[in-house]
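Homework help board

Subject: predicted structure for assignment chain

Our instructor gave us this sequence and asked us to write out the predicted structure in C-alpha cell form, then describe one feature. I got the C-alpha cells but I'm not sure how to describe them. Can anyone check?
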Amino acid sequence: MITRQITALIFTFLATAVSVAAALLPVGQPQYDFLYDRITYDYLHTHNGAEIITAPLWLDSAARSQLPLDLWTDNYTQQKIHLFGSIEEKFSISRGNRPSAFESLRSGFSAQPTSSFFVFGTFSLDEQKARDPEYHGKKWRGLAGGVDQAFISYKSGNFLGILGRFSEYWGDSRSLALSSNSAMDGFSWRYRWGRLSLGYRIARIDGLSPEQDGVPQFENRFFAAHRLDVRLSQQIRVGLYEMVVFGGPGRQMELYYLNPILLYHASQLNEKNDDNTILGFDLTLHPRKGTRFHAELLVDDIQIDDKLQSDQEPDEIAVSGSIYQADIISGYDLIARYERVTNRTFNQILPRNRFTFEGRPIGSAFGNDYDRTELKVRRWMNPRWLVDLQILIHRQGEGRVADDWTTPWMDISGPYHETFPSGLVERTTTVAIRSAGYFKKILYFDITVGVERITNEQHRQTSAISRPFVSITLSPYLFKRLSVSD
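My C-alpha cell output:
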C-alpha cells in the first residue's frame, strides 16, 4: 500500500510540474473551503478583509498572510516554482455497517508569472471516486485518475476572468444554483462597477452517450449563466441570476447564450428550443457587525395560469435561508440554515436538460424532494482549528433529479396536489461534534463523531434506528519550492 502511494505521488508530481503562486484561492476541496470559513469569520468579526460574494476569490498579500496554510502564505514571486501534493485517507465506521477506508493522492501547481495572471492545477488519483457508480472514466490499480482543476485567471482592476476547468460559487458557498461541487470546463468573468457587479459563466458539461445513457446518438450538453449583484448599501446586497442547460445531438454553444445581458428564457422561446432555464434571487444582509442573513429563491418552473389541466403541474422551486451570528456567547458563533427543494426541480422531460454534472446537481442542493435543517455552534480554537457542535435534520422524499419525467396531473381532472416530501419519507437526524483544521500548516484533519437516527431508511417502512459513527479524514501536505532564476 505504502509503495503504491509513493509511486503514484511521484508520478503525479512529474505529471504536473509547473510554477506556483497564490493570488486566487480555489474552491472545491475541503482543505480550501476551511480557509474560506476562516475568511468569513475574520470579516464578520472585524469587517476587515474580503466579503465573499463569488468565489474563487482574488486575495492580496495581506489577506493571504492570515491563512493557516503555507501554500498560500508564502511570499510569491515570479521567480518561484512551488509544487504541492497530499496523500489523503478517509475512514468511516458506523454501527451496523462495514468500515470503509478510501485513499486519494493529489498533486498540483500554481503560478503567477505576472501580477495579473494566475495559474492553478491539481491532479488526483482517488479510490472513492473509482467506486462511484456515476464514474465511467479510466481506472488505475483501483484508483480513478483525472485533472480536478486546471485554469488560468487574469485580474486587472475590477475585472477578473478565468479560463479552464474550475469550481466556482455565486452568492454563498452553499448556493443552490452554482456551487463548488462542480469543476466544469469553460470560462467565467466578473466585473465590478461601483455598486454593481456583473458575472458570467459558460461551460461544456458531460454529454449523454448511447452506451451509458441509452440515447440514440451522443448528445452534447452545455451550461450558461449570468448574474447581477447590486449593493444597495453597506448592509444590503441583492443578486439576480439566470441559468440554462441546453444541448442535443451535434448542437454547439449558441451565440445568444454567450451574451451576458440577454434574457436566456426569452431567447430559447424565440428560437423554439426546449432548453431548461432557471431564474434566481439571493439577498445578503449585514444589519450589524457580526451578523449576516442570507436567503435564496430559485425558480425552475412556476405555474401562473390556471386554465388548462397542464397548469396543474406543481411549482418547481428551491429556497434557502441562513444566519451567521458571531459571538452568540463570547467565543462561540451560531450558524443556522434551512433549505427546501420541491420534487421535479432541476429535472426536465429531456434528460439532457437536467441541471446535473456527472450525475449530481450543479449547485449544492442534495438533489430534490427534500428539506434540511442545520444548526451549528462553532468555536475557533485558533486560526488553524475549529470545533463544531452540529444538529442536522434531513427529510428525503422519493423523488430524484434523474427520475423519468412523469405528469400525474394529466391523469385526473381538476386540481392536483402532492405531499412534500413525496411518498414514504426517509428522515435522518444527526447530532455530532466536528473538529477540523491544520496541524503545523502541513496536515489537514477533519474528524466527526456522532450519532444518526433514521426512520424509513431507503424509503422502506421501518422503525427508527440509531447509529453511532466516526468519520476521519487526514491529509498531509508536501511542498517544494524551486527557483526559475537563471
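Reply (TA_rk): Your C-alpha cells look well-formed. For the description, you could write something like this. The first helix runs from residue 2 to 15. That's the kind of observation they're looking for.
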